[in-house]
Every structure is written in structure tokens, then in C-alpha cells.
Amino acid sequence: MAFLVVLGGGESGVGTAILGQKKGFDVFVSDKGKIKEKYKNVLEHFGIDWEESTHSEEKIMKADVVMKSPGIPDSVPLVKELVNKGIPVISEIEFASRYTDAKIIGITGSNGKTTTTMLTFHILKNGGLNVGMAGNIGDSFAKMVAEEDFDYYVLEISSFQLDGIREFKPHISIITNITPDHLDRYGYKFENYIASKFLITKNQSDEDYFIYDADDEVIVDWLKEHPVKSRLMPFSLKRSFGEGAYLENNEINITTQEDTIKMTTDTLALEGQHNVKNTMAAAMVAKLVGIRKETIRECISNFQGAPHRLEKVLKIHHVQYINDSKATNVNATYYALDSLKTPTVWIVGGVDKGNEYKDLMPLVREKVKAIVCLGVDNEKIKETFGNVVDLLVETYAMEEAVKVAYKIAERGDTVLLSPACASFDLFENYEDRGNQFKNCVKNL
């Protein structure tokens, strides 16, 4: 019996353990930290061997294959030793993809991948396909393959998950955009991060499709130097294509070899130019898998966006409160500010991943009337914007930040939580941060 070791007892680790056991592996889950109670219960239920707060290296080194959770860097000594011994170390999406014949739609990018994944799933499901959504969102892909039998999977995939692939091959791959993010995991070299994202196309053939943002110079320049085998399906707000998606007179045109679908942007449920792009990508997938035009049009007009992404919370005294807690980098916040039409009180701050805030300067000058800092260390934000806005206030708890914003905001303004930073200084994660914001707004 082949021996599968799973490093990390979170969502992807436990999903892989369940699938591994079902496929006849002897499975061992090892987590250097604590495993959450709900995951321990699942492992116990399936009778899977596990350990926490340690790695039994002697046992792990006997593995035939190791699935490493995406949170564990390749630079960890244990992982290096496994690689040196020639033991394959793969990611969950690689492991799971070996046990399904379903067509895979793989979506990655620095921003927009959750929205694009959810919208693609929404259209395909409403179009009558037998489709599952997994990856970085909801259930792990491995757990879904173990328990369901879908014809299609729409997967949100991070660069960390792509780093561990060998043969993983989506029929349709999407890169929404590439901006500097997670550089601490890539030796602070942007090109390493770009190469990681492009692994999504690595095993594709000329029968597969690659959908990408043709306005993104990083992607376009990389493609010039590193051509891919898949059929290129670009989307753009600036230029038109024989095959692809483009904007013309407020109309989205989706053109494939068969024909063209036209949709007016006035009907889009999601606001902002970046969401026009997310819609183009999702609609192109739907067109390629044969969903009817009427269904595509209907779905993009009634779609409810991703939670914590430009989520309208409440209007109080003619002030709109918006939760964009999922904006954990500068580029995501850029999209948020760009989509707003009203004077804005901006709540920003958290754990800075090496942010360059000056990219936001034109939007801050134009739209932001006051900044409420919410973080343990706000020095960089104060230095960058202290002389740009009329008012900058430091706060250290969500309730305080929301109360300050409430006092500053006037009729017709927007209060925007769009932190541009990770959340780990004051919150468990971005969901916790967003939920606290919503609760504090509701308690005003």
C-alpha cells in the first residue's frame, strides 16, 4: 500500500487525506501547529492517522508521495530534505486532478480571482451544467473529488498551489492580472511570482484555452518571451480582437470562432471597470463551454458578488458603508477607490506586505476626504498621505474606526473599508475583519 503523507491539517490537507484514503493510500497527516477541532473530528471519523504540534521526520521520510499545504513554503528544511531524497512533494490540486476526468476551469491572478470564479460557477450552474466550485474558495478540490462526481470544476487557484503541480492541466485557464504580491515567498523577485502564476498554462495543449487580460503589460510581456501552447483568448477595455472579449461603446463583445455575444455594461450587477474585466473572463468561459447567450446575459445581471469584496453593507443618514475587507493589497484597493463616485472616508491599514502606496495617490487626491488608519503600525500610511488629505485619524480597533468614520462622514459620502493590507495584526483573517466592520456598522 502506497504511503501518502499530508503536511498541514487544514482544509486542503484534510480533503487530500480523505481522497487519499478512498484511493487506497495509507495516509498520515502531520501539522507543526494545532489542528482545528472540526478537522480533527473529520480525521477521527475516517480513522486517519494524524499528529499536531510536531513533524515525526523519520515517519514522513518513508512517504511515497507528500502533499504539502499551500501555507508551507518550499524553503522549510523538512520540505527541502524530502525533495533531496527524491520524494515527490505536490499540491492538493495536483493530487486531486489525478482522480477526476472532469473538465477543469482554473482561475488565478493577484486580484479578481474570487469574483471571477464565483461568477463563472454561477453562469455554468444556471446554464444546466453539472459543476462544482472549489480550491481557494469553499471546500477543497480534493474533498470534492472524493465525495462528488461533477463534469466540470471551477477552481480558484493561488500561486502557492500552482507551485506544487506536475501534470495538472485545466481545459480553460484564466489569469485575471498580475501585480506584486506575496513577494516574501518568491525571494522578493517579481519574475519568480509571474512564473508561478503562468504554471497554470504549463501542461495545456492547442486544444485548451488561455483567457487573460491583454491590458496587463506584465502578462503581455511575459507571453512574448514565453509563448504558451493553448489558444489565446484575450480580454481588453482598450482594443478589439478577432477572438476574445473587448469593450465598444459600453458594450461587451465576446467573440469566438462560432459567433459574437454582445452585452451592455449597464446591465452588470457588479460595479467598476475591474468587474467589467471579471465579467468578460467569466462570460468567455461560459461561451466556450456552450452556455446559451440568454443565460449568460441573465446571470451577469443578477449575480451577487463575493462577500467582503465591495460589499454594500448599509446606508445610514445618506452615507453608504462598503466592506472591501478582501482588499489585502494595494491593487485591490485601487480598484475599490476607482469604482467610487462619491467623497470617501477611507479605513485603511493592517500588516503591510511591502506596499507601495504612492500608486493610490491620484485616486486619494481626487476622492478621499479623510483617512482612518486601522492597524498596529500606521507610519507608512501617515507618511504617504498625511499631507494629502484634510484629516487622518489613527485607531486600533474596528469599533473605534467605524465610530470615527461615522462622525466624519456627511450626507452623500461613502465610508469604505479597503485595508490594502493583511489582517493578522488585529484580526483572525480578512473575513473576521469584514464581519466585525459589518457588525459595528449595524450597531451605529
Residues in β-strands, percent? 15-25%
Measure the end-to-end span. 60 Å
Helix count, per DSSP?
Answer: 17
Number of strands: 20
Helix content: 25-40%
- Annotated CATH homologous superfamily of the largest domain: Mur-like, catalytic domain
**SS class:** alpha/beta
CATH class category name of the largest domain = Alpha Beta
Gross morphology? globular
Radius of gyration, rounded? 23 Å
Order of strands, widest sheet: 7-8-6-9-10-11-12-13-14
Can you give a write-up of this model?
The protein is an alpha/beta fold. The protein has three domains: 3-90, NAD(P)-binding Rossmann-like Domain (Rossmann fold), CATH 3.40.50; 96-302, Mur-like, catalytic domain (UDP-N-acetylmuramoyl-L-alanine:D-glutamate ligase); 311-442, Protein-Tyrosine Phosphatase, Chain A, CATH 3.90.190. Helices cover 35% and strands 22% of the residues. The protein has helices spanning 11-22, 37-46, 57-60, 77-84, 92-97, 113-126, 141-147, 159-162, 190-198, 217-225, 273-288, 293-302, 330-339, 361-367, 379-385, 398-408, 430-442; strands at 3-7, 26-31, 49-52, 65-68, 89-90, 103-108, 131-135, 152-156, 172-175, 209-213, 231-236, 244-248, 251-255, 260-264, 311-316, 319-323, 344-348, 368-374, 391-395, 414-417. The strands form three sheets. The protein has a nine-stranded mixed sheet, with helices on one face. A six-stranded mixed sheet has the order 15-16-20-17-18-19, sandwiched between helices. Helix 16 (398-408) crosses helix 17. The termini are far apart. The model has no long low-confidence stretch (mean pLDDT 94). One of its GO terms (molecular function) is UDP-N-acetylmuramoylalanine-D-glutamate ligase activity. Residues 107-286 form the Mur ligase central domain. ATP binds at residues 109-115. Pathway: Cell wall biogenesis; peptidoglycan biosynthesis.
